[in-house]
Write a structure and sequence with these properties.
- The chain is an alpha/beta fold.
- It has one domain: Metalloproteases ("zincins"), catalytic domain (Collagenase (Catalytic Domain)), CATH 3.40.390.30.
- It has helices at 16-29, 44-55, 82-92, 96-112, 119-139; strands at 2-7, 33-42, 63-67, 73-81.
- A four-stranded mixed beta sheet has the order 1-2-4-3, sandwiched between helices.
- Helix 3 (82-92) packs across helix 4 (96-112) and helix 4 (96-112) packs across helix 5 (119-139).
- The longest helix is centred in the last third of the chain and has 21 residues, at 119-139.
């Protein structure tokens, strides 16, 4: 089950049903199934605190993914800074909604096993993000 929460933000995510359907399709395309996934929308300050407390990283980021997967069942926590997503959307010249969906699927792709540490990993990750954003457009 995919659940949505918010911490230290007034942001209201309005596309819960569509997002659940989309992420289920993403998981199935990757021969996985959805377990327990929490998507926590938060502020820059909140995600910085999470980054410091759990990862000892002293910087802001748009997403932190905690992986609790078992076999091909996807479970984890996706902390998403709405502030950083908004800034990135402006920086990349895209709509906030599109950038938010990219970050959400990015987190799920991490749960599936994709990484973004090397240039080649980043290329594969971006390609998968684009593919699944297209899928979202088709099912919405």
């Amino acid at each position: 089950m995919i659940r949505f929460f918010k911490e230290d933000t007034g942001f209201e995510f309005k596309s819960k049903t569509l997002c659940r359907k989309w992420l289920k399709a993403v998981a199935e395309s990757e021969v996985c199934k959805i377990g327990d996934i929490s998507v926590i929308f938060c502020s820059d300050n909140y995600i910085l605190d999470v980054n410091l407390k759990y990862l000892q990283h002293d910087y802001y980021t748009d997403i932190i993914t905690f992986d609790y997967c078992s076999g091909n069942t996807l479970s984890g926590d996706l902390f998403i800074s709405v502030d950083s997503v908004r800034e990135n959307a402006h920086f990349y010249g895209t709509e906030f909604k599109n950038e938010l969906n990219r970050v959400i699927v990015h987190g799920v792709l991490h749960l599936i096993g994709y990484d973004d540490h090397t240039d080649e990993d980043i290329k594969v990750m971006r390609s998968k993000e684009d593919y699944y954003l297209d899928l979202l457009n088709k099912i919405s």
